Amino acid sequence: MGTPGYLEQLISHDPRSELWWDSSPVLYAPHKHRLLDKYPTVAAYIERLMPDDWCQSRSFSSVTTNPRLVTAVILDRREYEASRVDQSNLSPEALHKKLYDEVIIDGASALKTLWEQSLHAEGWMCAQVEPSDVRCAQRMTARGMELHHLAPNVMVKVPGSQEGLASVEHLVARGVSINITFCFTVSQFQAGLQAIERGRLSARSHGIDTRHCKYVITYMIGRFGCQPEFAQQAAARSMALAPQELRWAELLIYEQIQALVAASRVPVHTLLSSLKIDVDARGNQHCWHLERTGLSATYYTLTPEMVAFLVERESRGQPVLPAHAPLQVPPATFAKLMRIPYFYQAYLLDSIAPQDFALHAAFVTACNEANAAHRRLTDHCVRLCAAAQPSRRSINEILATEYGSVA
User: Could you state one GO biological process linked to this protein (predicted)?
Assistant: First the structure.
């Protein structure tokens, strides 16, 4: 079998840990073939990490997507519109939903056997509600139910705004599996745990079985430290933050989150996304998000780029491995970080009110990105419908075509 890889070492620390594919399943096989062509000397490692059959051995457990990833798949693989969708009788909004749902249905189908064989523990396909609805619980709940009904192994992804957490409670109460995303603070995790717990209690009181549901809360770890507000607040206090100090900040929040999740009665797992690769002064690549976490149960979303990083390091005989000891944060670094509101408000429990979750700088950035992808797909659908129905273009369609927005 060879030397244990990242996943094997991770599971040896805690068998509940998992790796998730952070892209559409349709990109899985092509990426694997590119890696085999580029790194033939570690073909056995690649085969263990990315078996052809999702059920062949324990590797990637589930799949997560977001509006940006779904949009990229649709724009790159035009067969979704060319062979399956009759555009002539659809509005741009209906076409957008149809194309988006097709990507989710395809992914869920690819994972369904794994979902069944694992008794619903693995094989989940995450599908995110529209980012434009981030402040409307009613619309997020309605769309969440639509996504839930696309396939039995769809996990609905909801942003961790105050309204999003209200939607989470409603969806959990109806037996929906949930991934709370856009989370950057310990307060959000606490509120997310409470929303899921309330939803489960409501489900139980109405006779709805939640035993096979799965719940994760996503800490977008690499997005926390890169926000300009962090550096600006440090500068206002006559401090500069080194790249390593930004990573320490992210890891300290991870530790707080893990302690919170471990102490909770709610069956929730921490999912780390937005993992970042850093380059040191000697030009060597490393990833603290992978190498300094994983002593306790943790899920990780790995993008194709992050998988390539693991394979490249393996090919040089410098494998990436999870943490082997607890974090040892330099006391001076911790003291420095605790002087900055951006950090300590995220680190300390109850430091951010739920109505302010969606105002956090990292939340705003992530939401803007998702909305930009949503608009790109909307614009694409407007153009398709305009071509199919040239005499029926409305002013909204014209505006969306020309400016990427709708009046």
Answer: carbohydrate metabolic process
Residue-level pLDDT, tens digit, the chain, 407 residues? 456 789 999 999 999 999 999 998 989 999 999 999 999 999 999 999 999 988 766 789 999 999 999 999 998 876 656 556 666 678 889 999 999 999 999 999 999 999 999 999 999 999 999 999 999 999 999 999 999 999 999 999 999 999 999 999 999 999 999 999 999 999 999 999 999 999 999 999 999 999 999 999 999 999 999 999 999 999 999 999 999 999 999 999 999 999 999 999 999 999 999 999 999 888 889 999 999 999 999 999 999 999 999 999 999 999 999 999 999 999 999 999 999 999 999 999 999 999 999 999 999 999 999 999 999 999 999 988 877 665 545 556 555 655 555 44
Q: Tell me the DSSP string of 197-249.
A: HHHHHHHHHTT---TT--EEEEEEHHHHTT-HHHHHHHHHTT----HHHHHHH
- Nearest Cα neighbor of 256 from 299, 296, 291 is 296
Residue 126's H or E segment, with its range, is strand 125-128
Could you give the dihedral angle defined by the CA atoms of residues 313, 319, 324 and 327, in that order, rounded to the nearest 10 degrees?
-10
Model confidence, pTM: 0.92
SS3 string of 250-273?
A: HHHHHHHHHHHHHHCCCCEEEEEE
Return d(Cα 405, Cα 379) in angstroms, integer. 8
10: buried, middle or exposed (CB in 10 Å: 19+, 13-18, 0-12)?
Answer: buried
What is the C-alpha R_g of the chain?
Answer: 22
For each of the domains in the chain, give its residue range(s) and CATH number, in order of start: 6-400 (3.20.20.70)
How many C-beta atoms lie closer than 10 Å to residue 321's C-beta? 16
